[in-house]
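Hi there. Long-time user, first ticket. I'm pasting a complex I've been working with (about 802 residues overall). I'd like to know whether the download I got is complete or cut off, because the file seemed smaller than I expected. Thanks.
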Amino acid sequence: MAIDMAQFHQVFFEESFEGLDAMESGLLNLDMGDVNVDDINTIFRAAHSIKGGSGTFGFTAVSDFTHVMETLLDEMRDGRRKVTQTAVNVLLGSVDCLREMLQAIKDGDTIDPAAVGAHKQALDQELAHPGQATAAIASASSSTMTQQPRPPAVDNDQPAVIGWTIAFSPHLDLLKTGNEPVRMFRELATLGELTSTVDLQGLPDLFDLDPEECHLSWKLVLNGAVSPDAIDEVFAWVEGECDLARMPIHGEHPAAPPAMTIPAQDAPRPPLPASIPSDGKDAKKDDTKASGKASNSIRVDTSKIDTLINMVGELVITQSMLSLIGDRFEVNKLDQLKNGLSQLERHTRELQESVMNIRMLPISFVFSRFPRLAHDLSSKLGKKVELKLVGEHTEVDKTVVELLSDPLVHLVRNSLDHGIEMPDIRSAVGKPETGTVTLDAYHRGGNIVIEVRDDGKGLDKDKLRAKAIEKGLIEPDAVLSDKQTYELIFMPGFSTAEALTDISGRGVGMDVVRRNIQALGGNIDIASELGKGSTIAIHLPLTLAILDGQSIAVGDETYIVPLGAIIESINITDDRVNRVAGKGETFLLRGEYLPIIRMHDIFNVASAKAKRLTEGLLVVVEGQGLRCGLFVDDLLGQQQVVIKSLEANYRRIEGVSGATILGDGSVALILDIPGLMRLAHQ
Amino acid sequence: MATILAVDDSASMRQMVSFTLKGAGYDVVEAVDGVDALNKAKTQAFDCVVTDVNMPNKDGIALIRDLRSLPNYKFTPMLMLTTESGADKKQQGKDAGATGWIVKPFNPEQLLKTIQKVLG
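Hi, the file is complete. Here it is re-exported in full:
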């Protein structure tokens, strides 16, 4: 009989990884000069929980390792040990090691003993540093850690013990800790044959009697070859709350065979219900199933689920109201029906929003790994850097969160490596020695914007230009705007670092970063000022599954323009249209010449009603910092559309990012504005 | 059947304790820390309390001390889940009014046996 412990592993891993994250950020936030005991306590508690859990669930390697960390942290907590940067670094290394150990166990891999050994040695060394005594404690207690539950003790030195007399006099307060003499006697009785005699001498007069105090004492005789340890264990909880004396009774008989000794651990076990899987094979199966599911699971705030349940409740009420009207419909109920339908529409929309909301995770899931990265990297580079996180609670779709991590790592690395200058250079130009890198997330329109800002040296336009010419990426006489010059760094094969470092120069260029962001339906742009710093901004749609769209009509066709891309829609007057030979048409809007893209030309729609510009509308759109006007027949409505991939079902088409199915069942293409501009340019 | 209050900030330990005790037929109410536990203990009567020691907000020892001062919990068995390194914790717990302890790491059988011991 055994309870299948594997069922708790998933939760244990989840909370352990969370605990490790908490330890890591706690360690990174420790201020060496002024250590806050609460902070150390938080770190200690996380280590302690992991140790307790891993011991319980049978991961002894993890609990042994955590034990050493815990000892170190415990000494820091008590003030017995100073918090030093070295100690913090050793602990940070151990956090990584633990994370790898747990991941290996979770994935069913073997733990690399060499790596663990190295980290453990570093910990032991750190422990031993202030004095030999602490090291001795650590190794002694870690060896007790691995001890199995005490084996049944059989006292071989006194083979003739056939029983015990026990004098048990509880102190007055014994009952007040919830201990109960009867309970202890019952337990003794499981060890051997017990006779008890109560001693009433201590009993006061009735008027003086406090019923909450224990005035009785007992003489007990326990027959049987019971080990003294077993007896001590029965009274272990009341040590110090009673007077206890036990005397062995020696008999002439040889000792009873060991099998008769029933120590506490082997007492009859209570039956467990059959529902608990006891079959080892089942346990294994459950385990693998659980770990397979892990990557696709999501932790959802309970309040979000409550909202969802509320919405479903509303929906059910609306539905029953509608079916009531439908059962006996008369024309005079038309208004009621209309009301009900609009309510249904509202509830469906709200329900949809709350379902989508479930997929939303705070961006702190991505941001949380950066303090560590910045810490490690800046100490490696010998730079002083402060990382600021802004807008961590901004929520993004889970898929976006997962795919955003790598590009952001690249950008932050770049900022630290190429952006922020060495402390002496910084102070020479009058900047504070410590550079600042800011990660900032916020919502704008239907997009989330993530900025990586630094106050480093900024991009040198002349250098960029010279490099691009040298690499043959642009013609020597090319005329580039500032923006276009900065964009050079996104070109494949471009790198400005004089020597590739192992930090940024990993063979992945900014072009790959941009491609990844574009694959998510977003874009990336850059602003910089020489000597002051750079800002790289990533714009991403909030979700990859649903889009706020504006339907436009071109002849019989309907297209969807992402609402976030639309700036305005206007009527065209002929006097503001310019025709440039060979370069198409432009529309003058508030001093800006917008290229006009005739949708019916681009997509070959023969049925288009508006052929002359004054007959249709111009939808002014923006993409990747460029603007243009889409010439369409008419605007239809705004609606949320579910994005279906064209690539998965057909093939990639320039200018189209996907398709959707409209309410009447017809298919509408979703426009990709930057792609459309490229298409029109050709 | 007896109702037990299981207090632990670690979800996996809480689940394990709760699952084991429920499997043996006890009613179990879970609490995530001392404050949560105290609130629950004030609105519902428990026959036994099993609590972790190291917890945020209110630790197990403070919880036991607070519970003991309530009239309803004067004699209620209260057990601490503690690690072997916490010898002084045991004493602190006893001083606060703990009935006894279960040493971590423990397995479900040990837990159940101890609970049955105090609940009879």
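A couple of notes from our side: Residues 3-113 of chain B form a domain with the Rossmann fold fold (CATH 3.40.50.2300). The CA atoms of residues 50 and 64 of chain B lie 10 Å apart.
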